[in-house]
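This part of the workshop introduces the protein records we will be handling. An example says more than a description, so a record of this kind follows:
>
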Amino acid sequence: MSLNNVDLPQILVVDDDSYNRRLFIQILKLKAFHVEEAESGEKALEKISETQYDVIVTDLQMYQVSGLDVLEAAKKADKYVQVIILTGYGSISTAVQAMQEGAYDYLTKPFNNETFLVRIEKALEQRRMEMLVEHQKREIEEFHTMIEKDLNLAKRVQNSLVPIEFENDNISFGVEYLPMIGIGGDFADVYDDNNGHFYMTIIDVTGHGIAAALLVNRVCSEINKLVREGLDPKELLHQLNAFFFDSFSQTGLFLTIQSIKVDYQNKKLYHAGSAHPSALLFHVGEKAVIKLSSQNPIIGFSDVEDNIFEQDVFEYSSGDRIALYTDGIIETENEFQEQFGLDALLKTFQDYKDQPVDKAAESIVKDVREYSHGDLRDDILIMIAQFS
């Protein structure tokens, strides 16, 4: 992934403690990494301006130029660089702030060698995935310009694919859908198997109009089948990708997806996403929102093996909420061509946390629509679930 002459992954270690630097470098050289060091934040800024790194490991507390300064400079130089913050126990809150500002992860000292190397490997994989998704999106946009058609389809059929609000003893669910031209490429499915599991799926097909709408209809039936087989999200994504690639690889259309499986009994969420905007998990007790980022390639672009697809597991508590949405929300632009953005969505998600989920979804879409000051440029779909 590096643009340097050296083919090995490029790693920069930043710490004003020489003993720590030597220790980290010794650990990293157990693997096939090219490692450089900076004895201060100032020196790190110089190196970042001259060299493109895959991963930067930086101490948080340093004289004059801190780890947060290094993080900011690194992200400005290369948005794909993965920064791992090293911190003491007393600075964990600042490390969390660093993650909110773009750090990949943080480690609290002391830590063992294996944990350190695992974080490095995962950071390298995250960088590779982000660059791959970006590359695929550029190629998809080229396809998109060739195949988009401005045709119409019955709005009633399209709306029938979007689930309605409901509530049971374990969960309450609300949804709001606003297609750009009455039809579109957004689709959602929810399903309670009455055996302790609840499934949420949201999909966005590239493009608008008749092509995307017809494809959504076909994908709808496939998703219904796969979900009702009780598959874990990563297996659902694998099988959906195989189906989509076999059936539609020549159309130039692709889809992004977030898939959630809720285990009521153990209060766990199983999550897998493919190139789709992050789901948002609101922990009511901690008053914090966790972003559930996509881990997998876009659906339908290539025929990949099942071991490529990954999923994560999260715990939840009564009162927690989760929101899934399509990119039409965060990419809505105002009259100055400024996007609504993820930060605004996070704020509105928090603002309406005390409203019933159906009203919260309606309020969020209302805010987005008011922000646009005109016609929508993409379909808008959001669904919110609250756990009992």
